[in-house]
Amino acid sequence: MARHVYSCPLRWSDMDAFGHVNNVVFLRYLEEARIDFMFRLARLDDSPSFTGGSVVARHEIDYLRPLVHRHEPVIVETWVTKVGAASLNVSYEIKDEEQVYVRASTTVVPYDLERGRPRRITAEERVFLEKFMDDSAGGASEGAVVA
User: Model confidence over 64-73: pLDDT tens digits?
Assistant: First the structure.
């Protein structure tokens, strides 16, 4: 199984009054990694996957440890845990070499922007997503694809 690896910088404005990354900001980190995975990485693979759009149907997030500001980026590992007919589940870990700060998942629905409605996952999208498929919980980061 391969994981997409995204290096995410921390910004001073990410901190809250308690001196750690605000819970809402973690969703932005997940979004940055997901966009890099589903759009930039797919293009490098010569895939037009998801060019028509997609929407988030659900987020689930477990905050495991506080993350304080530092100059080094965190790593967001992304992988696919489920591909259905018209949705997919993406899982993540936000971490560094020493610890995991967040584990999360997102349900994404491909969306036809012109028609204004959800659409089915194409065969080409399925082939791209299956390269990053792992339905087991957690796991090592072997085979990670660095962005």
Answer: 999 998 999 9
